[in-house]
Design goal:
The complex is a heterodimer. By secondary structure, chain A is an all-alpha fold. Chain A has one domain: MetI-like (MetI-like fold), CATH 1.10.3720.10. Chain A has eleven helices and no strands. In chain A, helix 1 packs across helix 8, helix 6 packs antiparallel against helix 7 and helix 8 packs antiparallel against helix 11. Chain B is α/β, with parallel strands linked by helices. Helix content of chain B is 35%, strand content 19%. Chain B contains nine helices and eleven strands. Chain B has a six-stranded mixed beta sheet. A five-stranded mixed beta sheet of chain B has the order 7-6-8-5-9, sandwiched between helices. In chain B, helix 2 packs antiparallel against helix 9 and helix 3 runs parallel beside helix 4. The chains are: A mainly alpha, B alpha/beta. Chains A and B meet through helix 10 of A and helix 3 and strand 7 of B.
Chain lengths: 223, 279
C-alpha cells in the first residue's frame, strides 16, 4: 500500500465525518420539524430534502456548482468574505453533506415519530421548557434513529462521486476521494490500485452499515 | 470473442436467407437489417465537428451514426473492455496505442487524421494580463485547469509542454485536473479557475473565456488524432465507409472550418485496405 492510498482513505473518512457533523444540526432540526409540526409547504420541503437521493448526483453537483461557483449567488457572497469553495476540500464536504442529508433526515424523522408525545407533555406539565423537553426527553428517545441516520449519511458520503467530481474536481492530495480515485485508476488501467481502494471502501461502508442496522434493530420497544 | 460472434451472425443470416428463399419470396438473397447504425467513439474535442460530419454521412448513405464522446482515455478503456465500437477517434497516439496493443483494432485500419493546437484561455471579465506560459506563475493566477495530465490527451500535451519549459513542478500546486478538455473550458467559463489549457478548436464553444495565448507547436510531440476501426465492429463495411468519409473532402471542409488541421492522406486509406474480414 502506498502513501497515496492511505491519504485518499484518510481524507475521505475525515471529509465524510465532517460532512456528517455539518449536516447533523440542520438534519436533526428538519427531521423534528417534519415529524412534529405542521406548516405551509411542508410537503414541498419534504420533497426538496429527498431530491438528492433520486436526482442524478451529477445534476446535484451541477446545481451546487451554479450556487457556490464563482459567479453563483452564494459563491459571490462567499467571495466577499474570501471563502473559496469550488475545487477545494470544502466542496468535497459540501457535496457529501447534501447527498447524505436525505438519509439522516428520513431516518431521524422516523425516530422522532416513534417518540410518544405523552412523555413530552408530562415533562412540560412538570415545568420543563420546550428546549429542556427536547434535549432531555425527545432527543435521547430518538437517539438511536438519529445515530443510525447519521451513520447511513456518513456511509453515503463515503461513496459520493457524481456531485464531488463536479464541484471539487479530482485534485491529487487535495480533493481526491476514494470514489474519485477508483474512477481515476480504472480509467488509466491501474486495476490493482483500483481494486485496493475498492476493498477499502467496501470494508468501511460495511462496518458503518452494520452498525446502523444494529442500532435500528435493537430499538427499545418502550418508546 | 467477436470473430465467433460474427461467424454466428453470418450463419444465422444464411439460415434466414435459406428459409426465406424456400418461402414464397425467393428474392431475399442478401437480407439487410432494417436500419444500419454504427457507433463512433471520439475524443470530446471532436464533438461538434463530428456531429456535423455524422449528419452528412447519414444523409448520403442512410447509415446511422451514434457518436459517443469522452476523454480519449475513457473511450480507450471502454473499447479494451469490449465496447462494440466501430470507429475510434482518439486525441493522441498513446490512447490509440493502448487499444491497438490490446488487439481491439482492425489491423491496418489506423491512420492519423487531424492535428490541433493547444491554447490557454482566461475568463473575459478577469482582466488578467497573461500573454505567455511563464505568466501563469504570477500570483494573480491562482488556479489553472488542465485535463487530467495522467491520461487525458489534452492534459498530457499540456504537461509535456510545461515539463519542457521546466514549469511543471512550479505550476503543479495551481493545477486543477478535470475529467476532459471540455470540463476545462467549463471551469474557465464559469470563472472558477483563472486559466486553462484547451484546444484551439474548443474556444469556439467558449461563452465567457477567450484565448490568452497559443502554446507554440512542438515538433517533437505534435498533437495527433488517429483514426481506426474497432475489432468489435458488427458492420465492417459501414465502418470502412465512415472511416473513408472522415478522410474525404466533405469532412475535411468541416474539420477545417472548425479550426482543425487535416493531415493529408498518405499511403493506403482504410477503404482501400485489402478486404480482409475479421472473421
Amino acid at each position: 500500500m502506498n502513501l497515496d492510498v492511505w491519504w485518499v482513505t484518510g481524507f475521505t473518512i475525515v471529509a465524510a465525518l465532517s460532512a456528517t457533523v455539518l449536516m447533523a444540526g440542520p438534519g436533526i432540526g428538519l427531521a423534528w420539524l417534519l415529524a412534529r409540526r405542521e406548516f405551509p409547504f411542508k410537503s414541498m420541503l419534504e420533497v426538496a430534502i429527498t431530491l438528492p437521493l433520486v436526482v442524478p448526483p451529477v445534476a446535484t453537483g451541477l446545481l451546487l456548482l451554479l450556487l457556490v461557483g464563482h459567479r453563483g449567488p452564494i459563491g459571490r457572497l462567499l467571495d466577499v468574505v474570501g471563502i473559496e469553495v469550488v475545487f477545494t476540500w470544502k466542496a468535497v464536504v459540501l457535496a457529501m453533506a447534501v447527498m447524505g442529508l436525505p438519509l439522516l433526515v428520513r431516518t431521524a424523522r422516523a425516530g422522532f415519530e416513534q417518540v410518544n408525545p405523552r412523555y413530552e407533555q408530562v415533562a412540560s406539565s412538570l415545568g420543563a421548557g420546550p428546549g429542556r423537553v427536547f434535549l432531555t426527553m425527545t432527543l435521547p428517545l430518538a437517539g438511536r434513529s438519529i445515530v443510525a441516520g447519521a451513520i447511513l449519511a456518513f456511509a453515503r458520503a463515503l461513496g459520493e462521486f457524481g456531485a464531488t467530481i463536479m464541484v471539487a474536481g479530482n485534485i491529487p492530495g487535495r480533493t481526491r476521494t476514494l470514489a474519485v480515485a477508483i474512477y481515476g485508476y480504472a480509467e488509466t488501467g491501474q486495476d490493482a490500485a483500483a481494486a485496493r481502494l475498492l476493498i477499502i471502501s467496501v470494508a468501511v461502508a460495511f462496518v458503518a452499515l452494520w452498525f446502523s442496522n444494529r442500532l435500528l434493530r435493537d430499538r427499545p420497544v418502550a418508546a | 470473442m467477436m470473430p465467433s460472434v460474427s461467424c454466428l451472425r453470418a450463419s444465422a443470416w444464411m439460415v434466414l436467407g435459406l428459409v426465406l428463399s424456400a418461402g414464397p419470396r425467393p428474392a431475399a438473397a442478401e437480407p439487410q437489417p432494417a436500419e444500419r447504425r454504427i457507433l463512433v467513439s471520439a475524443a470530446i474535442s471532436l464533438t461538434d465537428a463530428l456531429g456535423e460530419i455524422a449528419a452528412e454521412f447519414e444523409r448520403g448513405t442512410g447509415v446511422g451514426v451514434d457518436v459517443n464522446v469522452g476523454a480519449s482515455s475513457s473511450l480507450a478503456r471502454q473499447i479494451i473492455e469490449g465496447a462494440p465500437v466501430d470507429v475510434f477517434l482518439s486525441a493522441d497516439a498513446a490512447q490509440m496505442d493502448r487499444v491497438e496493443h490490446a488487439g481491439r483494432l482492425v489491423p491496418g485500419s489506423r491512420v492519423d487524421l487531424l492535428s490541433n493546437q493547444l491554447v490557454v484561455v482566461t475568463p473575459v471579465d478577469r482582466g488578467l494580463d497573461v500573454t505567455r506560459v511563464q505568466d501563469l506563475q504570477r500570483e494573480t493566477v491562482r488556479r489553472v485547469a488542465i485535463a487530467d495530465p495522467a491520461a487525458v490527451p489534452a492534459g498530457v500535451y499540456a504537461r509535456a509542454h510545461l515539463e519542457r519549459l521546466d514549469l511543471w513542478a512550479t505550476l503543479q500546486p495551481k493545477l486543477i485536473p478535470t475529467a476532459n478538455v471540455r470540463a476545462v473550458l467549463a471551469a474557465v467559463d464559469s470563472g472558477d479557475v483563472d486559466a486553462g489549457f484547451v484546444y484551439r478548436t474548443d474556444v469556439a464553444m467558449a461563452t465567457r473565456s477567450r484565448i490568452a495565448f497559443e502554446v507554440p507547436i512542438d515538433e517533437s510531440t505534435p498533437i495527433r488524432y488517429p483514426l481506426a476501426i474497432g475489432r468489435a465492429t458488427r458492420d465492417l463495411e459501414a465502418a470502412r465507409r465512415f472511416a473513408a468519409f472522415l478522410r474525404g473532402p466533405e469532412a475535411a471542409r468541416i474539420f477545417r472550418r472548425r479550426g482543425f488541421v487535416v493531415i493529408e492522406a498518405v499511403g493506403v486509406s482504410p477503404d482501400r485496405q485489402p478486404g480482409r474480414d475479421p472473421a
